[in-house]
Amino acid sequence: MAGSDHTAQRVAEAPDTVKILIAGGFGVGKTTMVGSVSEIIPLRTEERLTSAGLGVDDLDGIEDKNATTVALDFGRITISQELVLYLFGTPGQQRFWFMWNDLAVGALGAVVLVDVRRPKSSFAAIDFFERRNIPFVIGVNGFHGEHPYSPEEIREALALPEGTQVLLCDARERKSCRDVLIALIDQLIASAADNRA
Amino acid sequence: MSPQRSATASEVSGGDAGGRLVRPFALTGGRTRPRNEFTLITVVSAVDPPPARRGRQQPEHARILRMCGKPIAVAELAALLDLPMSVVAIMLCDLLEAGRITVHPPRVVSPSQDIHLLQKVRDGLGRL
Description:
- The complex is a heterodimer.
- Chain A is an alpha/beta fold.
- Chain A has helices at residues 5-8, 30-37, 101-104, 123-131, 151-158, 174-196; strands at residues 16-24, 43-49, 68-80, 83-89, 109-115, 136-141, 166-169.
- In chain A, α2 crosses α6.
- Chain B is mainly α.
- Chain B has a domain at 28-107: Arc Repressor Mutant, subunit A (Orthogonal Bundle).
- The model of chain B is unreliable at 1-34 (pLDDT under 50).
């Protein structure tokens, strides 16, 4: 092409990206949920985290100051040519996933999955989002699609803040997971409208 | 009318056609940005065609460039390369400094202003 090298350069149009986190205790179905709604088979990415650069409060309980590796499973939903939603499943088996600060920064919100047989395993995730003022909903993942407890009973058991949405779901079902995500987005839209008013 | 008259200082500062400096293309490349701009959902794209001075390149850099011929999120790159995020971020930083890629940061979401964006996400989820 004639003209300067620079003006001839083309760059493919990049979409805007947003993310939602899927959190909860170990084995609660986070990766299953990501896989149910993702257009790609969930991918895994990892980060090596060291104590350097962490907030002081995040150092609690870290006996070993060496690095720890944290992995995330994630999926993608293309909303349009201009907008792509990523879903990140936070790892439940590693204690220090919350040190991956980039994970929470800029997230639209989160789904905290709860296993009714082990609700306490999701306390840490609930606490994490509450403390950072990141909006979240509770998804109660019924194993084999069974829900022995009502949303009210779950709410009480988890001592959830008032107004927290509790949704019964099945992480294996696309539509069920989609509905949980929509409930989260509706909550965000409602609070955005409140803020404007 | 005297087309040849010299411009005064005030004409230069006030007139659009007169004194405006054209910003060099090089300044828009963002080559001095800090490394932490590569978040999980930052989208990178290879610059095509590549700049004339390509500099030295490792095989991993070439691999990344092939993978970001179409825009791709950093997390996806890291997963496909099977490398930690921080390693991929450093290599992307090299490529950015060499003018080989462009960077599209994530959408900054301010919940009180982004009803339009949220509505788009909701509509998209509704189509699933």
